[in-house]
């Protein structure tokens, strides 16, 4: 990436109103671009300032740094909007950052030390398209600014995960960033995981499973009975400044060839806490059933749970009835009751601190790593059939047109009337009730489906983004091996629960805003103009148009998806629309939810498995005066940091789940090297093609060097690789036949060979190809241009 020119900019330390300087710290001999304090700086200067001062890159701080007021501040806002739409900067919480740069506050894993013994960390989550994750030098703070409320500075060590404030490095010869520790999130105590390999003479080596991991020596007395090829958990037995570290085997997970060990690889590779500390278990075991204090008695209301057939915890229950009010003819009342986790998990308790470290539950095909211990998640807080359970409930009134007329929140004691699976409830509605659902059909299930039809009117009017991306599920055999991969049917029962949960989440955000209570929103920004332009050019090759301008709404994309429905391009268009979208995150600053087309949205309905929902529950309890377990002032002051942490942990969970599926599928296909498969091109890069096997949900790679003898040109806008000589190529969404060339289960990697010939490219792609070749020829002929290699 080219570096922007440095220029004369105001120093953050100067408050005199005189123009200052900024360049390379410690003196910079580069020429500076003159600017006038109080006037809008050139784009290059603004971009360099954002890159070098991430902690001062909010709109307010930028205006202050350049002395901008009045019309100049308006011009700054417009310039920043243009830079964001062009993809030159992107939002990160309250600040702006350059693409590929670290945000002002980030979660880091401390992975190593430099030659001087300084701790070096890297971002806990990093998008692969941004290249190698940057190194960050960790500075242990001795200043008052780096101390906590007790006057002590947090201290971190090797293997720890920290929340840190990020600064551009002073020494340009070292890491690009330095960091000051805000707090230590997780002290990993040097625990690591790897594959044990025996060495002659006894003992062995630990081969790391993490890409940035280091090999370790295991002495004969510390092998713990591990055999060659075993996946083992170790602790560092001795650290040294020189040579390999020495480790001691703590436990043998099992042969790395076993699928049951695969999820443990992801757990350790991503640093997911999976063992509850003794104080947390003790606190959970000591918990007593909730009392009726500050609760309404709703045990006679026939609320029911509808969940996957294999669900072990049940945190939401629903009920619907006609509204008896004459002011709302044919309207309905929908009640959603959610497990009252806030009663058991109090702020700053052992349970609470551990839940925040985890952020959310993580779901693997063979296990679940829960956010809360089983005593809480599967017992006291699970809305079990026929058992008294505490809940936080919302009663919502809708008109017959699906417009919400009002809602109220209640802290209740409930008793679930039935536990149903999605398939069971759907079968009853479809005319095939069983002994359990038969008596419930008229009084409970049909009113729920009638209410859903009314809610659906409101959803259709709102027009959220309706992507059709089937979610594959892996079914395992009893021994942990893959049985089959399938796409579960999408039932109305699923949609009913989803829409009722969305409405409950909206109600929570509205109530807290009305009470002027700070909270954590679930926000989703719209796609940048840069991503829109890539999508627009791609769609043009299919004869589909996307309107220009920055005011694109979710229904704009729905029109595109509708045009592609039923065509050969349907999957490809859905994938490209998905890629154009931003990622949803948690934040105390509300910008709305683009995908759902909602202005006020918070997560409220899953406090057993998401920390964000627990915070919202506490905020509701506190602001509505519903008794014990409300949000505290310390929590309110920390919502920025909490939102950043749980957003990171959500991405961590998604990556771990995805990698585990990749490893399971690679293990399943390892014995079929040489076999042919029907595949679809799922990604196009400069290096080659990513292909997906629809029957297996597996992804693999075809290097560009193996595609044939032609020279292939990469066209990002049209997501294509086109042969320079033949004009034939491959595009995103193409159906192809491939041969499995290599499977590496430990890495979850599959490499394929292309068997299908390239296809003639559409006119727009051919035009791009000709322009690229013409530009290359002109460059070769330009005066002073060096001839290409091989023709000197």
Automatic annotation (TrEMBL):
Chain segments carrying region Disordered: 1-30, 769-792
Keywords: Cytoplasm, Exonuclease, Hydrolase, Nuclease, RNA-binding
Protein name: Ribonuclease R
Biased composition (Basic and acidic residues): 1-16
One GO term of the biological process aspect: mRNA catabolic process
Record has Plastid as a keyword: no
Alphabetical list of NCBIfam families matching this protein: 3_prime_RNase (TIGR00358), RNase_R (TIGR02063)
GO molecular function: exoribonuclease II activity; RNA binding
The protein's Enzyme Commission number: 3.1.13.1
Native source species: Rhizobium hainanense
Keyword Cytoplasm tagged: yes
Residue ranges, compositional bias (Basic residues): 769-779
Gene3D superfamilies hit by this protein: Nucleic acid-binding proteins
Catalytic activity: Exonucleolytic cleavage in the 3'- to 5'-direction to yield nucleoside 5'-phosphates
Any Pfam family hit: S1
Domain S1 motif as annotated: residue spans: 674-755
Described purpose of this protein according to its UniProt entry: 3'-5' exoribonuclease that releases 5'-nucleoside monophosphates and is involved in maturation of structured RNAs.
Entry GO CC: cytosol
Family according to the record: Belongs to the RNR ribonuclease family. RNase R subfamily.
Localization (cell): Cytoplasm
Enzyme class: hydrolase
